[in-house]
Amino acid sequence: MATLTAPEQGKVRTTLYLTQENRERLDRIPRGQKTALMNKAIANALEEIEREENAQKFLKMLATIQPVKTEYSSEQMVRMLREGKEQELLDNKMKRAK
Questions:
Q1: pTM, two decimal places
Q2: Which of 7, 15, 50, 65 has its CA 20 to 30 A from that of 90?
């Protein structure tokens, strides 16, 4: 009668189907290193998928943003900031908010 033991906490056993080429290449790597290599490769692939998904979400959010209209051009705003007229810009912003 076979005895089943619970896997260590945090570890899961799974079946992985490899191409013959990958199998031959992995056979040259020691067992403990092979597992670490596969876990690292899977983690990297999943991170890349998440980055792509997040980039798509970000682009969709950007498409919904409406441009802000101001009384000043960006050049005028930079000039005012350089001249220390930040308060005038803030006052103008407060007037528009009301």
A1: 0.55
A2: 65
